[in-house]
């Protein structure tokens, strides 16, 4: 069979079934590109319906660089040609697989399949983080890719070097019925035009459920695989609500991800003569009746600016739970999430967010969208991408692990070879990582299998994974690399040494070898049962036994709960970032658990530096940090700030605590004592007083703001509370200091009247 004939038959099958077909053109790059032109001609695909995704230039078709493949999300093409010879990554496949429309072709240009697993490209180079070389990077993901291309239904393979067809990509899929009709419910509040715009009954049903958002105290959760039209449904709901005068706030990890929402809303408002203004640059749509639709990034939207009537959260699985919980304070909220996809795991969102939903005052309605819009069910390109990229990975079902306890589990080091050879084990490990983390991509699967600096540790219960940690080796860098890092060069895969060196100006920080806990996850059925701590303890014991790392480390978006967890597991705070994470809106904290003398020295000097600069950063870039985060970070520091006050400073502190003095006379003395008190393992202050120390003494917030945040009746009452806090502090830390004793005695005599 000629290549043109194969392409013609694949396109005919795709049209007949309203599915897509995948054609692999394996061989030399130039020969593959020439063959792709023949395929497009043979498949009778018009030039304006083709996109060529390649790093090369000079094509008559629409051309997109692989690094910009994400710009195609939300669009459809009859044919997409992906050049995998350069700048290829698993993420590119994940993005492009959903772009091809029903009846179309996905064409993949690859090296000879037998050679591809050993052929390094730019993605493999990105996995070779110092001190590793590209030769250290594995080829397991590419082996997986080749195996599925050679075995999956609906995938044709042609050798462009010798002109032979290895696989014809035949399937037994039935012809499509072509029934894509959708109808309005008998009774509906949204405009009829909104239902007429729905392409499936699933979409119409979902839109009907979204009518609940017209009322307060309602929440709707929409879960769907990619290509089911959930963003379109969100847009139709937004347009319908705005047309009725509602203020709709839309958020998503990035505005590009919400473009479909705005596009469908604008179309509907225009169709119903309700569109007043569309400012694409400002991301605002205004309706004739006064309603509007506006976009804000998640951290900003979490503050519910201008008190919206409804919040719509697109790609909710890619947003941290802490921010999602903030949207439950809105009058009504809709959450739209991808179940299987690199955007995030919808099931993970559901599990991690379930408690917050249940505890909220909102009445929650859930709806699942199953019917594909762009192609028919059973599409082979979709099932191939799910299988290859593990988009459907999930942990063990609850009953298999529900009885797991710290004493019933087995600690295992899982090698990349073992994971690649055991599909069931790989599914459980990757599924658990996906479920626990708000953002997991296909690239992460390849890193798990091939990155030389990564390793996996797990706890298994009756052979099933109940807790897993992904570890990254860092540090141990040569002098030249350390120097370049100090001078501003970015060194991949060494997050902790990079921050210590480039930001904190410690050129020796990359000498010790560390193992950073990139991710840790415990099965939701056995959370809060001590399994995470057991896993960390085993990792530490193994590291001490092997003697090949100087410290364990971790970096994450700081919350009081997480800081407490890591503190309990002997990790100490050494840095709190001064900028918020764009996605989570949280300040990141770095923590170390030293294992050797070199690790102890690294930990101690950075813990001391952290406390030394606390007053400065808290009064400026961290002035808006959550006081509970600050309290927990300081307490977890595992270092003692120096307590060095002059007799005069002690007398001023005692005078403000026991007499008529004022802290503003010598604020540095009060800040010094505040740090000492907050760092103590045995708290000397109540939680409220600790927040007061942070908010007023360390962050310098105005008295009215502090009083309001801490529910004091007035600023005067807050001032009184600060004095009471310092009574306790002076009693503990001033005991035995002559200046303190004499000053206290003076005020005590005055009170007694002597």
How would you describe the overall organization of this protein?
- Its main location: cytoplasm.
- Belongs to the TmcA family.
- Residues 164-185 are annotated as: Disordered.
- ATP binds at residues 203, 374.
- The protein has 29 helices and 22 strands.
- The protein is 42% helix and 19% strand.
- A hairpin with a 4-residue loop joins β6 (155-159) and β7 (164-168).
- The protein folds into four domains: 3-168, Rossmann fold; 200-369, P-loop containing nucleotide triphosphate hydrolases (Rossmann fold); 398-414 and 456-613, Aminopeptidase, CATH 3.40.630; 647-752, no CATH class.
- The protein has 754 residues and is an alpha/beta fold.
- The strands form three sheets. It has an eight-stranded mixed β-sheet, with helices on both faces. The chain has a seven-stranded mixed β-sheet with strand order 3-2-4-5-1-6-7, sandwiched between helices. A seven-stranded mixed β-sheet has the order 16-17-18-19-20-22-21, with helices on both faces.
- The chain starts with a helix and ends with a helix.
């Amino acid at each position: 069979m000629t290549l043109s004939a194969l392409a013609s038959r694949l396109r005919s099958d795709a049209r007949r079934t309203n599915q897509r077909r995948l054609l692999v053109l394996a061989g030399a790059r130039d020969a593959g590109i020439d063959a792709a032109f023949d395929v497009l001609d043979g498949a009778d695909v018009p030039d304006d319906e083709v996109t060529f995704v390649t790093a090369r230039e000079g094509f008559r078709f629409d051309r997109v660089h692989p690094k910009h493949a994400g710009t195609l999300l939300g669009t459809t093409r009859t044919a997409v040609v992906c050049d995998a010879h350069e700048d290829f990554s698993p993420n590119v496949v994940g993005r492009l697989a959903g772009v091809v429309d029903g009846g179309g072709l996905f064409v993949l240009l690859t090296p000879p399949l037998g050679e591809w697993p050993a052929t390094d490209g730019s993605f493999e180079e990105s996995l070779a983080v110092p001190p590793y070389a590209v030769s250290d990077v594995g080829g397991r993901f590419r082996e997986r890719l080749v195996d599925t291309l050679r075995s999956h239904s609906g995938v044709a393979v042609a050798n462009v070097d010798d002109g032979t067809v290895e696989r014809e990509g035949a399937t037994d899929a039935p012809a499509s019925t072509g029934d894509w009709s959708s109808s309005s419910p008998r009774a509906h509040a949204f405009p009829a035009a909104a239902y007429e715009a729905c392409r499936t009954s699933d979409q119409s049903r979902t839109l009907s459920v979204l009518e609940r958002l017209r009322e307060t105290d309602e929440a709707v959760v929409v879960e769907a695989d990619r290509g089911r039209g959930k963003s379109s449904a969100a847009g139709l709901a937004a347009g319908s609500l705005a047309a009725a005068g509602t203020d709709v706030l839309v958020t998503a990890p990035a505005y590009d991800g919400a473009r479909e929402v705005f596009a469908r809303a604008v179309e509907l408002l225009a169709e119903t003569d309700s569109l007043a203004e569309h400012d694409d640059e400002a991301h605002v749509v205004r309706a004739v009746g006064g309603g509007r639709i506006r976009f804000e990034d998640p951290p900003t939207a979490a503050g519910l600016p201008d008190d919206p009537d409804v919040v719509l959260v697109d790609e909710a699985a890619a947003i941290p739970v802490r921010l999602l919980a903030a949207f439950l304070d809105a009058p009504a909220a809709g959450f739209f999430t991808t179940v299987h996809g690199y955007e995030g795991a919808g099931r993970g969102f559901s599990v991690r967010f379930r408690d917050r939903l249940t505890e909220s005052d909102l009445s929650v309605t859930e709806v699942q969208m199953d019917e594909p819009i762009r192609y028919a069910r059973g599409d082979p390109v979709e099932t191939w991408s799910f299988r290859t990229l593990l988009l459907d990975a999930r942990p063990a079902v609850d009953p298999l692990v529900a009885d797991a306890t710290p004493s019933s589990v087995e600690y295992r080091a899982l090698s990349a070879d073992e994971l690649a050879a055991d599909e069931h084990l790989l599914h459980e490990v990757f599924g658990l990582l996906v479920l626990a983390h708000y953002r997991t991509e296909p690239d992460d699967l390849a890193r798990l299998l091939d990155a030389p600096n990564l390793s996996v540790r797990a706890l298994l219960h009756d052979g099933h994974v109940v807790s897993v940690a992904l570890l990254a080796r860092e540090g141990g860098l040569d002098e030249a690399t350390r120097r370049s890092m100090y001078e501003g060069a970015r060194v991949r895969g060494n997050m902790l040494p990079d921050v210590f060196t480039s930001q904190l100006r410690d050129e020796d920080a990359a000498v010790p070898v560390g193992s950073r806990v990139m991710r840790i996850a415990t099965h939701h059925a056995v959370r809060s049962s001590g399994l995470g701590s057991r896993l960390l303890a085993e990792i530490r014991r193994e590291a001490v036994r092997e003697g090949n790392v100087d410290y364990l480390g971790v970096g994450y978006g700081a919350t009081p709960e997480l800081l407490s967890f890591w503190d309990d597991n002997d990790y100490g705070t050494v840095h709190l970032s001064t900028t918020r994470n764009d996605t989570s809106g949280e300040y990141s904290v770095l923590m170390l658990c030293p294992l050797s003398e070199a690790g102890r020295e690294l930990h101690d000097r950075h813990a001391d530096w952290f406390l030394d600069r606390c007053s400065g950063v808290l009064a400026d870039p961290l002035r808006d940090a959550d006081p509970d985060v600050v309290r927990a970070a300081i307490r977890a520091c595992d270092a003692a700030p120096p307590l060095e006050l002059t007799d005069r400073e002690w007398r001023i502190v005692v005078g403000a605590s026991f007499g008529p003095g004022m802290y503003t006379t010598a604020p540095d003395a009060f800040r010094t004592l505040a740090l000492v008190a907050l760092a103590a393992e045995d708290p000397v202050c109540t939680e409220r007083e600790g927040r007061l120390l942070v908010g007023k003494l360390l962050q310098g917030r105005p008295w009215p703001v502090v009083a309001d945040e801490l529910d004091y009746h007035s600023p005067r009452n807050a001032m009184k509370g600060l004095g009471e806090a310092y009574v306790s502090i002076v009693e503990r830390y001033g005991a035995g200091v002559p200046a303190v004793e004499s000053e206290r005695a003076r005020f005590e005599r005055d009170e007694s009247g002597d």
